[in-house]
Amino acid sequence: MTTNTFPDVARIDAHDKVRGATRYASDDSRPGMLHATLACATIGRGSIQSIDTSAARALRGVRLVLTHAELSRLQPAGFLLAGGYGVQSLQPLTSPNIAYFGQPIALVVAETLEVALQAAALIRTAYAVEPHQMGLDAPEADIVAQQESPLPKPMFEDVHVGDADAVFAQAAVQIDATYASAVQHHNPMELLATVAEWSEGRLTIHEGTQNAEGVRHGVARQLGIPAEQVRVISPQVGGGFGQKNSLQGQTVLAAFAARALGHSVKLVVRRSQLFHASSFRAATRHRIRLGADHGGTMLAAIHETDAQTSRHDLFPSVNAEVSARLHGIANFGARERLVRTDTQTPGYMRAPFEHMACFAFESAVDELAQALGQDPVALRLANDTQRDPVTGKPLSSRHLAECLRRGAARFGWARRSMAPGSMQDAEGQLIGWGVAAGAYKAATAPAVARLRVYDDGTALASVGVHEMGQGIRTALAAALSRKLGIEPDQITLDIGDTNSTPQHITVGSWGTATAVPAAVEAADAMLSALAELLPGDAAGRSPAEILRAAGRRSLDVAIRRKAPGQPDAVFTRLATGLPAPLGPNYPDFVSFSYIAHFVEVRVEPTTRRIRVPRVVSVADCGRVISPRTAASQVRGGVVWGIGAALREASEVDPRYGGFLNADLADYVLPVNADIGDIEVEFIDRADPLVNAMGIKGLGEVAMVGVAAAIANAVHHATGIRLRDLPIRIEHLM
Ligand code: MOS
Fold it and tell me: How far is the CA of 242 from the centre of ligand 1 (A)?
């Protein structure tokens, strides 16, 4: 099959971003706006016995101080994964109970941010302290078998294919290893922030969110008002990747305060508070058993996971969905358990399960290659599959083998010597070359798209999708431009606004695969409608020429679109702000995106400092719609993978509750000096089944497998197998 590669289009927001003209929620300013800040609990668990806000209230410029005494009547919005709208079921400030360190206990609103901060520091609280538990080694009573939990089936059912236990027990070559990861926190530049504004009984929320419709319906439920009275506008998420996927705790507080004061209120969650105010990537532990014959055929695997959740919610763990699909393994068993800890509820963070599932599994595959004396690329190629091992359905498309072959060629893999510690550079640094594969589900969400063209040559498109920084506006404008013959800068994109079209949650790497085909379908409907305006005379004429010839100022069309095999009922969920995605398991096929990463590390022999000078990543994400933003996504994913492998950890001291990190000095991220060359290549072949444009999705698969490729490279450089993330200098001493 040949591919028509789409042209490289510059980001339509590039100049605004570089000039700082892009406005995020915390940049928002309204006349008379007041500033709010949170005061937070300093115990690991317990309850408030007394809270003295008198000094705070007495400070000049303070307009309002709210505690649980005033807010206990707020209604719960429910937890997103339990059918509700919220990042967790617990709404802070509605009771004196403290479930976790850093839980907000008071809201202060003042004329300036400085006064609000000073007042918050004057609040005095007495607590009754109860013991807390933060680790995965918890008492049995705190461990939940996910299979037995009330989480919706079949989404959170354990995977069982064939007879993994029996086949593994008989396998000639067995790997049995346990891998673990620290907690990670998203640290986007744009913090969680809300500006709430009331006008004639109607509430407008300006907030960077991936789920404007969910925030709208959730906040309406909390305040006990109809959703029709709430509008949520999220023109720029400012770094999403799961952190901003649902109703956050601060939103209703800003709305409540703004209503009480008759002024708009801005509430920014400070970075020092983010480690407890936002969701996070749970700590996990993965035991992988992988059995093969002497020839290197993988016969059976068992993937057991313990993942952290909060005491008040069950945040599901979905690791085997991807690990069971990476290779063609006929017998696969999985068991996922959730461990209750005294934290806020963990949540989604880029490739929320796939990153660690593939770190564990692809490390085990490398250990198997080592045990067999086989090349790790050849071992993976020999275990490729074109049929879904879990359901037996056809895969919509899978070009992982081609990713591995092209990546190996581009990287120069043939020059790798097999023995660990056998490659060095001229300065005596140890060189390690590692490979790993990744996969991520290709899901689709329902979407409504509206399109209007004007006789002056401009167009307005409204689509249900959020701009998370990935460049969705650029992808939409380019696709519409190609269809309509209107320049991208003449197309206004109205997205992330509940007043334009219903805004389904934008997560799970389904943004482009959902919104671009919807926009293109709207454009096709528009071309048909234009042709009907001027029967027999529309060909070769631009939309504006047709409108002028027909004496029309503008023309509107609207379409709605859902995943293959999805019932119409999903549009009801869409309209009420509830998630309704489908994938990877469609009625007639299973769909995943794939990637292969090739990584070079250099380890300084004395200090054991690890550098990553070179990465080659080859992705199969179906059709590449926007080459520039897609390559950018992959580079960002690789950087995130380097962070996950070598830097990021939210530190826990079991004596205290919560996380010790409080800023970007303590939460260590890779900086420019840590990043070398990242070469990105795409298979760029349309998927024939998942949607008319052949798009599978890219945002999350980009980082999947990076950490395993790094750990495998570290092993190749040093002979030391490291199974806990992050890997740091001291682990190589
Ligand atoms: Mo993503 S972790 O599905 O926003």
Answer: 4
Nearest to 53 by CA among 43, 64, 42, 61: 64
| Same structural domain, 180 and 197 | no
Are 219 and 252 in contact by the 8 Å Cβ rule? The answer is yes
Please tell me whether residues 607 and 721 are part of one structural domain: yes
Domain count, the chain: 3
pLDDT at 2 over 50: no
Are 600 and 710 members of one domain? yes
Give the closest residue (by CA) to ligand 1 atom 3.
Answer: 508
Which atom number of ligand 1 is nearest to the Cα of residue 241?
A: 4
pTM, full prediction: 0.97
Cis (ω within 30 of 0) for the bond into 726? yes
pLDDT at 84 over 60: yes
- Cα–Cα distance measured from residue 219 to residue 615, given in angstroms and rounded to the nearest whole number: 44
In DSSP notation, 128-165 reads: EE-----SSS--GGGEEEGGGSSSPTTTTPPPEES-HH
For 665, counting Cβ atoms within 10 Å of its Cβ (0-12 exposed, 13-18 middle, 19+ buried), the class is exposed
Residue 581, domain member (yes or no): no
The distance from CA 606 to its chain's CA centroid, rounded to whole angstroms, is: 38
The residue to mutate among 350, 355, 467, having the most atoms of ligand 1 within 8 angstroms of its beta carbon, is 350
Instruction: State the closest ligand 1 atom to the C-alpha of 699, by its place in the atom list counted from 1.
Output: 1
- 714, with CB counted inside 10 A (0-12, 13-18, 19+), is buried
Residue 235: C-alpha distances to residues 209, 411, 494, 495, 562 (Å): 9, 39, 8, 6, 23
Ligand 1 center from residue 209 Cα (angstroms): 12
Residue 3 lies in a domain: no
681 in a structural domain: yes
Name the pLDDT band for 135 (thresholds 50, 70, 90): very high
CATH classification of the domain holding 499 = 3.30.365.10
- Cα of 506 vs centre of ligand 1, distance in Å, is 8
Is the preceding omega at residue 579 within 30 degrees of 0, hence cis? no
Apex 364 CA angle, 363 and 367, nearest 5: 90
Q: Both tokens of residue 372?
A: 């067999």
**Which structural domain range is residue 234 located in?**
24-131+189-239+244-277
| For ligand 1, mutation pick of 81, 248, 507 (most atoms within 8 Å of CB) | 507
Structural domain includes residue 721: yes
Give ligand 1 pocket residues (Cβ under 6 A). Answer: 210, 240-242, 245, 348-350, 352, 507-508
Assembly ipTM: 0.97
- Predicted pLDDT at 154: 79
Q: Note whether 33 and 159 are same-domain residues.
A: no
Same domain, 298 and 386: yes
